[in-house]
Write a structure and sequence with these properties.
Strand content of chain B: under 5%
Largest interface: A-B, 52 and 43 residues
Helix content of chain A: over 70%
Strand content of chain A: under 5%
Structural class of chain B: mainly alpha
Largest sheet of chain B: none
Largest sheet of chain A: none
Shape of chain B: elongated
Order of helices and strands of chain A: HHHHHHHHHHHHH
Structural class of chain A: mainly alpha
Number of strands of chain A: 0
Oligomer: heterodimer
Distance between the termini of chain B: 29 Å
């Protein structure tokens, strides 16, 4: 029977909750294990950048009170859990007194936007190439060309990004070197702004897509080869159905479903890749926020941002896991 | 047995026999061989290089600044210097020495992390498959959780608060995320092999469990384990380079990622010093493509159906 069994849902939700809990616990432990307490480090950082900080001891005491660092560890832990789960990450250090959650809220739409453009492109190109690679009627030159594009597979997207910046932005001056849109522009729904947005987005998107689609090409090719041998394929051919119809309705539609689960596996790598690509392109997203906060040792922002990305990934994986049995009822999940 | 070989020999033309035999060894497929040569040459460079080149030049201030490779000019119109054939960076590190030390460093971090991950995978995978019950449930759940957490973010949190100054510590941290794949793989294989005839036979003959694991099952697992090891090596190098580009990890040890980060930080791209970030990038590309080819080659060893498909 298979499908969405109660057992399966409970297990997936449990994994999701435990993932979030384990991540928060790791973040909490790291902060407590770190040499010196984070507050003194924060004040030291502040005094390094602003010169003398008056009433340093009072400030440290105030912060400790604010973060509840004078409480026993278990109470600190519970408070920490509560804070992260309510997205209260405290103030940022570099952009003081801005709240970390505000910084994240400002950066997140850019990252999600970039991801929403990149992911369908990767999925489409990867599966298209995989299907063409396995199809009997694909023209010879195309079959020879596709494996050559696979050379980029498993390269880090940052390196592709660096090469693109150098070749297409610095040397050929075809694209801007960094930023999400032209300097001095205000986000608006004008053609000028949107074209600038696209112009700035092409290189980051290209460097993410070019290293990732091969993963799906390989998977799709494998699935296509498997479906090729099915009886319904022979029947469809024997009925004299047009080749394209057979390819799409009979072969691709059956082969593509397991590719959706691959999404859950690949998501971790895609998220990490996007963070690094955003950082080198100074895109306005989460990646750049992490990069600048590492540079400025802004622990609050690093913790908050990392937590949000982990949560985001875990939620996406949960959604994919729950959707999959609905779209592919053939799979029995009892064994898994 | 003798009759069967006689039959195949008579069916195949004698002239073709030699060729067929050579390709019959699945470990000698082209992808695997080329991949091993690519990765091996990087390691070889790390062994032979220090004998030919003064690797002390890889540290700050040992050479003139911003020199281009021989045969090129930098933005100030200076030519290359034969004593620094691949140029230098903006704090006087010689690129050739930097690559000779840095490339094996980057590769070894990956291998060590994947090695620890494999060790964990073998222990946990066999316990999960053999013990079953509670132990199996806990190990599976931990593997599922670890696979869901994006490792880069956790490593960022850890390393930004607790600075890592040695490559070994870096490798150990990376290996915390390299155990679930081999664990799952070994568990699945052990579960299916446990029911197979030869394992049942060994159990009935009173062979101790440990030698069933390592003498009966392990050889069959080898190609899978090798593929999983290489996959984890790629993943670990990827994470290490990523962390280094973000400015984390050991600060003073020359690695490829650290060199690229130096170049980015000092606008190596805008100063047209392509050799600074480009050469480490090229070496990393060789490493990654080599590892990918090894992985695809191992896939063919483990999965004979793929061999057929590629030969058609």
């Amino acid at each position: 029977m298979g499908g969405l069994t109660l057992n399966y849902i409970i297990r997936r939700v449990l994994i999701f909750l435990l993932t979030v809990w384990v991540s928060i616990t790791i973040i909490f432990m790291v902060a407590r294990l770190a040499p010196g307490d984070p507050i003194s480090a924060m004040v030291a950082q502040a005094s390094a950048s602003m010169g003398v900080v008056e009433n340093q001891d009072a400030i440290i005491e105030g912060w400790k009170e604010y973060f509840g660092l004078n409480d026993p560890i278990p109470i600190q832990y519970v408070k920490f859990l509560g804070n992260l789960l309510t997205f209260d990450f405290g103030p940022s250090l570099i952009a003081f007194p801005a709240r970390v959650s505000d910084l994240i809220a400002r950066a997140l739409p850019w990252s999600i936007g970039l991801g929403l453009v990149t992911l369908p492109l990767i999925f489409f190109i990867g599966n298209l190439f995989g299907a063409l690679l396995a199809w009997r009627r694909t023209p010879g030159p195309l079959k020879a060309f596709i494996p050559m594009t696979m050379i980029f597979t498993s390269l880090p997207s940052v390196l592709a990004g660096l090469v693109f910046i150098f070749v297409f932005a610095f040397r050929m001056k075809l694209f801007p070197i960094s930023g999400p849109f032209g300097r001095g522009m205000q986000p608006s729904f004008t053609i000028e702004f949107i074209s600038s947005l696209i112009h700035h987005g092409i290189l980051p998107v290209a460097s993410l897509v070019i290293v990732s689609f091969g993963f799906w090409t390989l998977g799709m090719r494998g699935m296509m080869v498997t479906t090729e041998g099915e009886d319904y394929m022979t029947l469809a051919d024997a009925k004299g159905l047009p080749p394209f119809y057979v390819l799409y309705r009979y072969q691709v539609r059956n082969a593509i479903l397991p590719q959706v689960t691959a999404l859950a596996i690949a998501l971790r790598t895609l998220v990490a890749g996007q963070i690094l690509v955003e950082a080198i392109f100074s895109y306005r997203g989460i990646g750049t926020l992490i990069y600048t906060s590492i540079r400025n040792q802004d622990y609050n922002t690093i913790q908050g941002t990392s937590f949000v990305v982990i949560l985001f990934t875990a939620v996406s994986v949960l959604i994919i896991d729950l959707i999959y049995p609905l779209i592919d009822p053939r799979i029995s999940l009892e064994g898994n | 047995m003798g009759a069967a070989t006689g039959q195949t020999a008579s069916l195949t033309a004698p002239r073709k026999m030699g060729r067929l035999n050579r390709f019959d060894n699945p470990w000698l497929n082209i992808k695997l061989v080329v991949g091993v040569i690519m990765v091996g040459s990087i390691l070889l460079m790390g062994v032979i290089g220090p004998m030919l080149v003064d690797v002390d030049l890889a540290y700050v201030g040992r050479s003139p600044l911003n020199l281009p490779p021989v045969g090129f000019e930098n933005m100030r119109g200076e030519g290359g210097d034969p004593t620094h054939p691949l140029g230098t960076d903006n704090s006087g590190r010689d690129m050739l020495s930097l690559i000779i030390i840095g490339a094996p460093n980057s590769l070894l971090v990956g291998f060590v992390a994947a090695g620890f991950g494999m060790l964990g995978g073998i222990i946990l995978g066999f316990s999960s498959g053999f013990l079953g019950g509670m132990a199996d449930d806990i190990i599976r759940l931990s593997a599922d959780i670890t696979i869901t957490i994006p490792s880069l973010l956790v490593l960022i949190v850890i390393q930004s608060l607790i600075p890592v100054q040695s490559l070994l510590v870096m490798a150990v941290l990376l290996s915390l995320f390299a155990w679930p794949q081999p664990t799952r793989l070994i568990r699945a294989q052990v579960m299916s092999m446990r029911e197979s005839g030869y394992v049942k036979m060994a159990q009935l003959s009173g062979v101790p469990t440990s030698s069933i694991m390592f003498r009966e099952m392990m050889p069959n697992l080898l190609p899978y384990l090798a593929a999983s090891f290489i996959g984890n090596t790629t993943g670990s190098i990827l994470a290490a380079v990523g962390l280094e580009i973000l400015g984390l990890g050991p600060q003073r040890l020359p690695t490829l990622g650290r060199t690229i980060q130096n170049a980015i930080d000092n606008s190596g791209i805008l100063r047209d010093m392509w050799w600074w970030w480009g050469l480490p990038t090229v070496i990393l590309i060789v490493i990654f493509i080599g590892l990918l080819l090894i992985n695809l080659g191992l896939d063919e060893v483990a999965n004979p159906r793929l061999r057929k498909a590629t030969r058609q």
